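User: Hi! I'm working on a homework problem where we have to compare a predicted structure to a textbook description. Could you give me the structure for the chain below?
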Amino acid sequence: MVSQRAIFVDAGFLLAVGGTQIAGTSLRSAFRVDFEKLIQGIMKCTEVHSGLDVLRTYWYDASKDALFTDQHKQIGLLPGVKVRLGRISFNGEQKGVDLKLGLDLVGVARNRAASVAYLVSGDDDLAEAVEEAQDLGMKVVLVGVADAAHRLGVMSVAEHLALRVDSIITLPAELIEECFTRIVQDAPRPAPAVPAFAGHPLPRPVPKPAAKPGPPTRPLHHPLQRPHPAGVQAGAHLVYSSGGTDSTFVPEDSPMDVAQEVGESVAASWYGSVSQGELNELLADRPILPVEIDRVLLKDCAQRIGEYKTDLQAVRKALRTAFWEKLDALM
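Assistant: Happy to help. Predicted structure tokens:
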């Protein structure tokens, strides 16, 4: 087996993690990326770790009908970089990306073209391909973005995958900060025109009159929240000490609080990165959200509270409601 390294980058994973860290959302229109500097940074990081020459860097992404966009052409023209594209389905999900990455990883190992593979991904679907490459004599090193709060020490990596690689390294924090830039709308835009139906404008919402104060009532708990003991602040969970007598309370956001924050964050990022025409198109289909925005809302929320809680209808409704309310406030 040739003593050199090969780099496999799941672009969807890397851009989502970097965008979330810099812009607070994985919505790609909310940030711009210096791809040349980012890829060079990954190559330098892996070179320092192994000291081996590089075979090439494989860049995996998705596009409509798996066709090269101008951005993909720009990346593909970089020295030593090969772009491999899957396709984007009707609901905005990537198709074929993990399969291409897994096949290439095993193929490089089988052909004994590299002795070490550096994998920039977090998807547990790649675990079997990792083990197959290892059985063929290749070492597989996971490359992630550091997250001290996570038990694995890296952001958005499945434990199933982390347990199967030979080791884990992290990209320098300054690399993400230098390569990702949040897009901010500088100049205020005029209020969008109200869409018309059958020649008649839709009525604007009329604010409701303030309710008259009534007798105090006992607050009702949301079905996703449990009652809190006396003296405990809402949104906290009990952590027992090893002695079993003392206890402390650590703040923890409820799923509904997280949904509110994520919905507002995605709305602010999206509004700050689109044109007036795109805004008008979104409002024309209200309350329906485009699949790409809806997918980002669910993805960003799932990263914080898990897919199981995000699948709850109350959480999904809160995400979309928070998005529209924040957008109304910005307009």
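For your comparison, note the following. The chain has a mean pLDDT of 82. The longest strand covers residues 53-63. Good luck with the assignment!
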